[in-house]
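Protein modeling request. Please complete all fields; requests missing the sequence field cannot be processed.
Requester role: graduate student
Desired output: 3D structure, token encoding
Chains: 1
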Amino acid sequence: MGYGHLVVGAAALVFAGSMIITARGPRAELGGAFLVPGIVLALAAAAFTAAALRVVARPRAGRAGPLLVLSTIELVAGTATTVGLVVATTSYGEIAPWRSPLLLPSVLLLALGVTGIRMEVAHRGSGSRPAR
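Delivered output (132 residues):
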């Protein structure tokens, strides 16, 4: 499960890097409007990736808290991209939702978030039962 979080963190770092490069490039048409959001996203993605690296490095010891936090962040981000997908497809009317570039990231983030939270709930539920 931790490797999925690493993939999400790496994708966020790549996306933030592309935002920063686009803002600083020779054809920056928006006058660097992507620079500050790109830097903020890069910092958040670096923190997320570092936490995911810690979860992967220590698979059993103390993973419950960080794994639950990472899964919750993915669930919130997936919900936000799903809302963006709905707004984009209803605004343009002609575009089918399955042709939107937001569909795959939304589904993957929601799936990782829900799976991680379910695993933690099951792990905590089995750990709190009395032994027979």
